[in-house]
Amino acid sequence: MQTIKKDTYKHHNTGYGPVFQTIDIEHKDYLALVEPDTAFWLLVKKNKLGNLISDKKFIEYFKEKSSSLKKDINALRFEIKPSAVYLNPTEKCNFNCTYCYIPEEMRKNGSEMSSVKMLECFKILKGYFEKILPAGRKAQIIFHGSEPMMNREAMFNAIEKYSDSFDFGVQTNASMLDESAISFLRSHEVGIGISIDGPSSESADKNRRNWNGEGFFDKITPLLGKLNDYSKFNVICTITADNMEYLSETVDFFHENKVRVCMLNILRCTQERSRKVKPDEEKAAKHYIAALERTHELYKKTGRKIIVANFANILIALMAPGARKLMCDISPCGGGRCFFSVSANGDIFPCSEFVGVPEYRGGNIFSDAIDSVLSSAVFRSMTGRMVEDIYPCKTCAIRHFCGSPCPAEAHTMNGGMDRPGAFCAFYEAQVRYALRLIADKRESDFLWEKWDAGTETLFDAETLNF
Known about the structure:
By secondary structure, this protein is an alpha/beta fold. Helix content is 36%, strand content 13%. The protein is built from 17 helices and 13 strands. It has helices at residues 49-53, 56-78, 104-109, 115-132, 152-162, 179-187, 201-204, 217-220, 222-227, 247-256, 281-302, 309-319, 370-374, 377-383, 399-402, 407-412, 424-439, and strands at residues 21-23, 30-35, 40-45, 84-87, 139-143, 166-172, 191-195, 233-239, 261-266, 307-308, 339-342, 347-349, 363-364. A 10-stranded mixed sheet has the order 10-9-8-7-6-5-4-11-12-13. The protein has a 3-stranded antiparallel sheet with strand order 1-2-3, with helices on one face. The protein is globular and about 65 Å long.
């Protein structure tokens, strides 16, 4: 019997040859050609597709690069060490947002981490990261919610004592962000993220209210003028059924207030109550893409960009996969792999989305070694979650640009880690749109300046004369 070596393939879609899939990106001239296992893609003019895929020279080009591409995507998926922690200094919150992933009882009557315990926690984290990160590289600590400012004293004390050891960030509803807090955070170069869900109190306060039903849009809006010159400032808008039709107006509002970076995040459906405001995927995608187009119009009109960071990450995942900054849109996702979460009592979870899901507690930072927690069965179920094992993701051409997020939704909403998340059509629409931008050579208008420093174009069907 003749033995065929895998490196002798000459054809695609047969035997040991590469498997290419075509994607209609809804562009008048171009299709995308994707080899999913390596996350390789190429934009091809529709009238040249037949010539390309039957050209042996193209197969040879891919053959030369495939092992390197596979190595790069595997390194991104399986070889990254943790470098960030989402720390909840308190379980309590002064807001009762409809879509919050933290259970209501915790936000009402939960515990908080004392200043003494927080300093102990940071001592442990410092020792851990000094062992695993290169010398001179700081891990990132993001104070997260519930509302971290409700434990301001302990949080600020820890920042002050460990500012030389970590890069800090805080995600806040901004209702308690007074002048002295802003001054402190800026002086210690702490990243500041605030949440605003629309361009007016009518839209922004719909699902973001305190326990008395009061909204805070009018109080929070003036903070934009106090923070818009701060390079480490961003705004998050959570997309729901109630505000999705205002996304373009929201972009206008942010741009008018000189916000440079925002995130338009589709809501998470880990809690039953959040699913009551779950938007229709296709409608949400339509409004989302319209908002992205609006950022482009504003940039061309004013010369000033507003970057939608989570979409920019999708573009980066296509243009330069290793440079992506957010790790929700890849499998395994970043939870338990690139970062982990520490709750107010020290419990360790793969991600903040699991803080209200007790079965995903991997251990406690005060009693268990971090290495042991990260290798626990609970964490392995996260870090071992791969699109190759999920239907229909396993056959999807864009599976490494989406990652079937979010595992917390897959578990709580759809019944298991081997299930997809909540918004397949929404993420698919983003990838198609991103590829259209690339086809029209507009991608840089949606990205940070000098985003492409050090990148290399591996294939260009037009210049290679395929």
